[in-house]
Amino acid sequence: MSPEYAQKLGEFAYVWGWPMVNMLNRRATITKAPKPAYLNGVLPVAPQGQLAMLNDYITPDETFVTCPNQDVVYGLGFFDLDSQPVVIQVPDFKDRFWVYALYDQRTNQFGQLGKPYGTKPGFYLLVGPNWKGEKPTGITDVVKSPTTLANSIPRVFQNDTKEDKQAIQPVINQIVAYPLSEFDGKMKTIVYKKLPVIQGPASDGKETKWVVPEKFFDENQLGKVLEILPPLEGEQELYAQLKELLAAAKSDPAIKEALVKTAQKTEENTIKSFFLWKNNGVAAGNGWNRSFYSADWTGSGKYDYYNRAATAKSNMFDNRPNETQYYYTDQASDKSQLEGKNNYKITFASGQEPPVDGFWSLTLYNEHHLFSKNSINRYSLGTKNKGLKKNKDGSLTIIVSSVSPGAEMESNWLPSPKGTFSLYIRAYWGKEGVTKGTWTPPVIIKY
Prior knowledge:
- The structure is a single chain.
- The chain is of the alpha+beta class and 447 residues long.
- The chain has three domains: 87 residues, no CATH class; 160 residues, Immunoglobulin-like; 170 residues, Domain of unknown function DUF1214, C-terminal domain (Jelly Rolls, Sandwich).
- 21% of the residues lie in helices and 24% in strands.
- It has a six-stranded antiparallel β-sheet.
- Strand 1 and strand 2 form a beta hairpin.
- The model has no long low-confidence stretch (mean pLDDT 96).
- This is DUF1254 domain-containing protein.
- It holds the Pfam family DUF1214.
């Protein structure tokens, strides 16, 4: 194998394997926690086979994952389901919207646990692809992952009021996961407000670098993915080629050097470009794009490796389209970059807010797809905000600017940072206009 051949194959391998290596390294960090805790006080972490929940909205200090939202209370847990089946509890959420997004190593969702699916309270057993047991007594249902490495990110809607933040506590405290060996048929409780804080990597204001180009082609990175993740139908020859590539790199320093340079170049020239919203999803109108195969990238019957990598880079843990539709843009409707030096108006015509059975929101992110702290600690507006004011004709105008629009419109103000930023609409449990892509996001007017 020549270095030139290795470089060409390496370019594809880097895009192909980027999401799975990302998942591998997240699990390695998150599961270091000796017990459920808050990493740096902002991210719920737990040992493998367990999960932890936040007790309120995620804070603007969080940089471990891009595009967080402040509509839900999040949880997080990573599992090795072939070696350790996991029980995950579903309490009685009553009328509150909730969904447990379950992701396999390829970043596809599996299973159907949530209000959109009519899931009943109970105990659900998560198992790996090689599990062949019978459903244990007391288990409500068994949910099988197509990969042994998997994770869960529960999302529970919360209104932005003191009353609801208090009312949600008993419910989220019963969102608990643990190994099957600990199952006794009784609903367990963790008071998440009392979790300890443990220290993790310091933040530089950007998302944690989960994929390191210089290490990507190491045996414990891409090599580990090829070891624990069986090929999809049609990928057998690809796996053989990639294993040959890694074997050549191990025995030939020139090939290893070529692959490191290839990884660095592909990260800079390809992966980095996936952060732009124009390179994600499909056009939705008025300058917005919308998610398409997010969290379900094999749903089209095709293996869309580039779209998968784009989603993993820009917003790693999207929900599948029937649960959530995302609309995003870096530009105003005149195609100019959104910038904090400008003021913007976004008006939803009367009756034209995102049509949903769950909830919707408009979130603002800085250039790193994270929150920038502001004077009123507000990062999104939508269903959760009961103080939004409508215009006389029933339309809803949201003001995006770096300075307050004044007392009369401050309830509808979304503060922007000084630099560039992007806007992001979430439509959870969408109605037909959302699910069929016929609803059009509003015009963003610079004024």
